[in-house]
Design brief:
Rossmann fold; alpha/beta; 24 helices; Arc Repressor Mutant, subunit A; seven-stranded parallel β-sheet; six-stranded parallel β-sheet; elongated
Length: 632
């Protein structure tokens, strides 16, 4: 059988046809054209590069800032019998070296790279020797300074053209304004503009933005009325626990989730929610990326998100089964003020940024002229407390240090412990005979994991402790002993963000920070906050307002958001009031108070408003303080 995109789709995913726009994107890529694909959250973006990656000879390189999503996609591909590898912050030099060799000499079809890895000479040199068939850039809005989630490391992507000039770029995103669409193509060096776009409209979603003094009470009523499973987004870790406890106390099976929870506990919480044992997960924005649950009936925000792009993406996790679902934003007047305060704190003085750099270098005891390429586990809360720094300003300072090429900070993600034997099987056997102490752990590794002589394999020290009936600490000590004797390489697990210094340490007073860029970013951020205010103050239709923000002008009102429902309700009310007035006045003329009191619909002011409208239209006439119906 001749392989084509449909046969690949059927063979590996079991689908008989593509979703809207997917096939057009695949065809564009297969023709060797640089392509920007705009698809809503849950629209199936990964298929768009995975199918052409499999159909062509060579390897598809995927750039993604979301390590958790990379790992998830690698696992999914492997479960379908497709060779895939991910390289991200926190992996050791030798581990990366072996993985890249497998991409050049092995059968690997997909290499997932965190964007900060493009700073590495090792990675760039090995990419040169790979037969790359496609560069896929996920979350492509991160390359644009006009985007809501600008990542300086994304600016390195354009330089990949120097390695393989004829290989096309496929940039994918779910959120891009018209400015961002232009900027992505310019930053990636598209020779010809080529945008394939699916509408941002989600017709099954009833967007709501409600000003509410009692947000907790309103949230509870929504959860009970809508039913099904959902997500409640809050600003910080403390709130996740407080809101989850409130829901539990009111009989709603709920749990909390944030980046500070250990990996095992996170997995348990996610599984309970996926299996509907937990109805509501209360989370920070750490929850959601790569989590594809189709039957989410509501997404409630108890705090205003940082931008409409972030809101659209998080709200879009509702209703992926195309059934009715409700993204609801609950806010108070004070929340609007907090949003502007947050903006102010996001742009610290240059002297503060320089001071943060100085403290970082001291924190890790890096000498002047040293530290280039060094990786460290990084806990921003601990660091900020140690030096008495504001948390939000410190995080912002790190982003500007990254923009100017001094360091890179990756997201928090769990990286399991890894092990690789550094001697061959015969040498290892001799060592076992001579060192009875290590024999049980070596046998356990060999029985449990294949390929441990060729590449690093993820291991679980707790499982070994259980099998060998030894304390966890003893297992770690044995593995560290194997490393000290150069029998194996042992890399311990971590679930903290990774900080990498890109340059050798300099005196912080000589540290260059781009003041013009700081000023431009502030202007962009102000525009994003003002767009949020405009959305909250919208009078016509929430969906129409969102679509307009993303450049889709002239769309119809949705009919299902809070504004449309209120308008429709008022129209129905007015119609009922008119019917009542007609029936009453056809029977006999009535005075104002007598007529208004006899109408059973709506409040008094609404009844009078409709009556005055009927007088203006000539349907009702007032003579001598009596009202008459004039038409039949």
């Amino acid at each position: 059988m001749v392989e084509n995109s449909l046969s690949i789709l059927k063979q590996y995913w079991g689908y008989d046809s593509f979703r809207p726009l997917q096939e057009d994107i695949v065809d564009s890529v297969l023709k060797g054209r640089d392509t920007l694909a705009l698809m809503p959250t849950g629209g199936g973006k990964s298929i768009c590069f995975q199918v052409p990656g499999l159909l062509q000879e060579g390897i598809c390189v995927v750039i993604s800032p979301l390590i958790a999503l990379m790992k998830d996609q690698v696992e999914q591909l492997r479960s379908r019998g497709i060779e895939a590898i991910a390289i991200y912050s926190g992996m050791g030099y030798r581990e990366v070296d072996i993985a890249l060799d497998n991409c050049i000499f092995g059968k690997t079809k997909f290499l997932y790279l965190a964007p900060e890895r493009l700073y590495s000479d090792l990675v760039r040199e090995r990419l040169r020797y790979m037969k790359v068939n496609l560069w896929a850039i996920d979350e492509a809005h991160c390359i644009s300074q006009w985007g809501y989630d600008f990542r300086p490391s994304y600016l390195q992507i354009a330089t990949l053209r120097e390695l393989h000039p004829k290989v096309p770029f496929l940039a994918l995103t779910a959120t891009a304004t018209p400015d961002v669409v232009v900027d992505i193509q310019e930053k990636l060096g598209f020779t010809t503009p080529n945008v394939l776009q699916r509408s941002f409209a989600r017709t099954n979603l009833g967007y709501m933005a409600l000003e509410e003094e009692n947000k907790m009470g309103r949230m509870l009523r929504i959860v009970k009325k809508v039913g099904g499973t959902g997500v409640v987004y809050v600003r910080n870790r403390r709130e996740t626990q407080e809101v989850a406890r409130f829901l539990l106390n009111h009989g709603v099976p709920a749990d909390y989730y944030h980046a500070g929870i250990g990996m095992k506990e996170r997995a348990i919480k996610q599984d309970a929610w996926f299996s509907n044992k937990t109805r509501v997960i209360v989370a920070t924005n750490a929850f959601g990326m790569g989590i594809d649950k189709s039957d989410v009936r509501f997404v409630i925000h108890l705090d205003i998100p940082d931008s409409l792009e972030a809101y659209y993406q998080e709200a879009g996790r509702a209703g992926r089964d195309d059934k009715k679902a409700f993204p609801v934003l609950l806010y108070q007047r004070s929340d609007r003020d907090k949003l502007w305060t947050s903006l102010e704190n996001s742009f610290p003085e240059i002297t503060f940024i320089q001071q943060v750099y100085h403290y970082l270098a001291n924190h890790y005891q890096i000498a002047y002229g040293a530290g280039k390429g060094s990786f460290f586990d990084f806990d921003i809360v601990e660091f900020s407390k140690k030096y008495g720094l504001d948390l939000l300003q410190t995080l912002s300072a790190l982003k500007f240090l990254e923009r100017d090429g001094w360091l890179v900070l990756s997201e928090a993600v769990y990286i399991p412990s890894r092990l690789k034997f550094e001697i061959d099987f015969q040498e290892l056997y001799k060592f076992q005979v001579q060192s009875a102490k290590y024999d049980p752990i070596i046998k356990a590794v060999l029985r449990t994991y294949g390929g441990v002589f060729d590449f690093y394999v993820p291991i679980n020290e707790y499982e070994f402790a259980k099998k060998l009936k030894l304390p966890y600490e003893v297992i770690v000590e044995l593995l560290q002993g194997l490393e000290k004797q150069q029998i194996a390489s042992y890399l311990k697990s971590t679930d903290k963000p990774q900080l990498q210094f890109l340059q050798s340490r300099v005196d912080y007073k000589n540290l260059y920070i781009d003041a013009d860029f700081l000023r431009e970013r502030r202007q962009i951020r102000e525009q994003q906050v003002k767009a949020l205010y405009q959305y909250l103050d919208e009078k016509t239709c929430r969906s129409q307002a969102l679509l307009s923000y993303f450049g889709e002008l002239g769309s119809d009102v949705c009919g299902v958001c809070d504004l449309c429902l209120t308008r429709d309700f008022k129209a129905v009310q007015a119609e009922k009031i008119e019917q009542e007035i007609r029936v009453l006045l056809l029977e006999k003329p009535l005075g104002l108070h007598e007529l208004v009191d006899a109408i059973p619909v709506a409040d008094e002011s609404k009844r009078i408003q409709v009556l005055r409208g009927l007088v203006d239209l000539g349907k009702v006439e007032e003579r001598n303080s009596q009202f008459y119906w004039l038409t039949n």
